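Dear colleagues,

As part of the handover before I leave the project, I'm documenting each prediction I ran so the next person doesn't have to rerun anything. This entry is a single chain, and its sequence is reproduced below.
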Amino acid sequence: MKGAVLNRTGETTPYATSQPIEVSDLELADPGPGELLIKMHAAGVCHSDLSVVNGTRIRPVPMLLGHECSGVVVESRADDVAVGEHVVLTFVPRCNDCPECVAGRPALCFNGARANGAGEMLGGGRRITRGGEPIHHHLGVSAFAEYAVVDRGSVVVVPQDVPLDLAVLFGCAVLTGAGAVFNTARVRPGQTVAVWGLGGVGMAAVMAAAAAEASQVIAIDPDAGKRALALEVGATTSLAPGEPIRDLLPLGVDVALEAVGSAAVLQVAFADTAPGGMTVSVGLPAPDERITISPLSLVAESRVLAGSYLGAANPERDIPIMIDLWREGRLPVERLRSSTIRLSDINTAMDELAAGRVIRQVILFDEQ
């Protein structure tokens, strides 16, 4: 099969010139017990992939990138998933045995996180080679390839009438952004919400805040096109960075959601959160970034600062709920897709993402 392998991290931009990612001929082992072979249909290019390319997220290389995808099961060694099922993959494999999984918090699965950090499968080891050289897995998925072997815990079966080139977006952008609104912030009707950063995750959060019947949804991004789209999918107001929220809401917002991956932006979001409100960090900043807050304000103003990984989601519970909201027209997920691309365009796609010009570029494997 062909797949896009990251050979080096921290290369200079533009990546279209430095070419850190190489489309290679790869060998894929057969699935083991509890694993499945997936024929890939679509894969989204996400900022979490870029974070590995630019070195913000430290991962072992060479690594077959990609973690947001949809496909069809062509071989199954899991009792409850059949050949021919349509599936969405998620980027934390669920072991269902660790304390976090047992407590209903599979996004924090201990064994899944350990395997992801090592670039291995949940069941241990790697299934991909290039000329005999082992290739690391990205988040248990490695979606930028024609096929993938994945653990059952990475899979959510979706109805076959949901187009796979739409279903792909539920695996990360929608699950993470909408999950942060529904599961972490638990936005209530009438609350006010601001979202910093209108990539796939942030734009999904805007949609979800509108679906949750927030009274005001403020979308903030330097890109005018993204701000315009946000107004079409649920935002009531759009602002460029630096335009004051407190001219609209003197006390600040009830829920401030940072989806940029920047400590400086999180600091701004925290400052614009009202007393009694919640600031939610969803982006992935560099590990050495820090913010400064007043502990007194947390106490005296009953403030909450929360992180949200994978939208604090239970994917098998939440993806069907989000699909139902899409069917009702309340989550216009199709608007997240900026363009479709070829696998060979992957380095250029990273440049587009780094420049903030796109929301979601989607690789369609049947069109290669």
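The CA atoms of residues 188 and 212 lie 6 Å apart. The chain has a mean pLDDT of 97.

All the best with the project,
I.
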